[in-house]
Fold:
Amino acid sequence: MELGMYSFGDTQRNTDGSLRSTAEAIQNLFEAIKHADASGLDYFGVGEHHTATMPASSPGAMIAAAAAATTQIKLGSAASIIGTDDPVRIFQQFATADAISGGGRVEITAGRGSSVETFPLFGYSLEEYDDLYAQKLDLLMAINNADTELVTWSGTVRPALDDLAVVPRPASGKLPIWLATGGNASSSARAGQLGLPVSYGIIGGAPHRFAPLAELYRRSGAAAGHAPESLRIAVGALGFVAPTKKEALDRFYPGWHNLNVEMGRLRGWPAPDKRAYLEQADAPGAYYVGSPDEVAERIVHLHGYLGHMRHFLQMDLGGTPQDQLLESITLLATEVKPRVQRLMAQK
Amino acid sequence: MVIGAQGHMASRGTIGILGAGRVGTAIARLAIAAGYRVKIATSKPAADNALIIEIVTPGAEAVDVAEAADSDLVLLAVPLHKYKTVNAEALAGAVVMDAMNYWSVTDGDIADFEIDDRSSSEVVAAHLNESRVVKSFNHIGYHEMEPDASTPGSTGRRALAIASDDTEAKARVAAFIDALGFDPVDAGDLAAGRAFEPGTDIFNGRFSADELSLKLHASLVTA
Structure:
């Protein structure tokens, strides 16, 4: 089981609640990735997100910088919103970062995005939402699966490529491309049919309710002739690790509260409810907030339902203090990971 | 021959569901548990949905749109921006439960729903102009449906509002809601459905029948 984290960037707050700079958030994110690498974490996912509180808008640039400053950690997007971006450019950026990493550490996760702000930002129409996603995923796969740098593709949402060079090629031939989904059944079926590894974003409710989707994914993949070992599942969820459960709950709550106040203002929600937070932060809820023992046990428990090979946590949101984030990363890598390995070995 | 057809007719009646997303499949599972025969259709051919339905909603049948439309009740749970692709002719005369929401902050602006202040279900009903449209199931999260369902008379049983211009259709949907595990509360005509759309207290909260009635009454007073 690989353990990791993902971040959309986390803009810090002044004591009066006002936002500090988004540049500082990017510097903090860069520091967190280097710290995760040095601590022994397996994976770090970056963005894509486009708000003042979560400003990691450019995973390709961030990952290229991180690739140069790390030695072992796998780096990916979480996720690249491919419908409103150019797959040629995404591929070139990630293949460049892959070369800088020494080869084999850079991945792309393709997703629809959980919100729609990239549509006005990049000038796309929501009416083409499904077409944009399907065709651009197809193009991204066509580039990745090409035997040479020359790519031929045609569709309706973007000009065709007729034997055009897309360079650089990844050091090991191809980049891992994951499909991100929040739990729509047809997305799991599609990932299986395409033979792509799937990344579930589980942000609420009991994660084990994804078990039928995992089964659907694997059976769809098998029916399409894909080998079982190519059908891999990752789980991304909110979480935070501290020496004790109480410290973890107390450290993660202010940021969770801030985020929900902000989203509530946009979406017309009432003030966030601490009981809902506490409920989600206990088994079988969606938040992996706790001591190393508890977080490890809950990850392994979920493995019994999903058989996933990677579990990664969003641990910085709403202005989580940087020193607490770095400690959570340390604990995830040095305390949770060995516990997970031990528990998995006992199964 | 439909795919996954059961050898018997369930006694409660047949529910057709248009849309195999998170809302459609959650309601399908509740309906199957309550003893309904459930038929699910999407814009894809039935055979393409067979595996999804076998695994995600065991006991339901993958059918085409015409067959799902020919059910005692039809649930409409497709992405709202696709509402005009729903075949109005196939749904002529049907009792159609509209579980969809217009929520521009998460789904973006859709011009048809920005032009006036009608409820989204009134706009949908203008398209399905020969159907008996009932607004319901829109103010509960898909992930809350199964955990929050409970037997009639349970303490604090969660309530769901219904709004329609068709009294008889509303009564049939009320019985369905009760069978699934919620107390139905009549909000009034279809226009009254605005009281439980995104941004309202009702949309944001969880309420028992008494609480929901009070909230609906309050919204009428202030409207």
Notes: Chain B has one domain: 14-222. Chain B touches chain A through 26 residues (CB under 8 Å). Confidence is low (pLDDT under 50) at residues 1-9 of chain B. Residues 167-180 of chain B form the longest helix (14 residues).
